Amino acid sequence: MLQQFGSGIWVHDGGSVTGAMGFHYPTRMAIVRLADGGMLVWSPTALSDALRAAVEALGPVQIIVAPNTLHHTFLGQWQAAFPRALIFGLPALQATRPDLRFDAELGAVPHQDWAVDLDQVLLPATSVMTELVFFHRPSGTVLFTDLLQNLPRDWYSGWRNVIARLDLMTEPEPAVPRKFRMAFGGKPGMRASIEQIIAWPAERVLMAHGTPVTADAPAFLQRAFAWLR
């Protein structure tokens, strides 16, 4: 149910979700143990009784984070299950989900509740999405939500397979899809944001949609963002 990904961090691979034009995506969430023993849930997937029990066995859920403006489908389930947990989301997401109770906004500066354990970089806002990239210090893990993707070559069929290949969603290693390169590439501050991410002492790279990188993470990050230079 939960797999330990490194010191103080666990992952869970959930089911698929369907997005625009019928494209379906695998889902993945991460759970981080904070310095005070509480748990931070990153990009929550669909909640089942078994998953809830596994998470509660690690420690009390204190914080639930929606790290970009696209990953919010299951926030309501988690909020109902853990009403005392603080819910964090980007301002643009909060504006589109008035049905949810958000306790605080995500921004460029790490919140005091996780600043000891996590660093973060806020990417420039675009009309496609806004994303906050995290770095978990104890495990050396960089956490991307949608900016990096890596699906199997046969994940889609028919015309969706063609589009996914053209969009670089099914490359041999995780890559930034072309649609996001177009959205983010010309944004002021994007290159500086990526330079901050590359400067982290990364040992692993985790993403919501794709195979994690567990070796030579710094070299991988250089390759993944070479298109920006």
From TrEMBL:
It holds the Pfam family DUF4336. Transmembrane segments: none annotated. InterPro entries: DUF4336, RibonucZ/Hydroxyglut_hydro. PANTHER family: METALLO-BETA-LACTAMASE DOMAIN-CONTAINING PROTEIN (PTHR33835:SF1), YALI0C07656P (PTHR33835). This is DUF4336 domain-containing protein. It comes from Devosia sediminis.
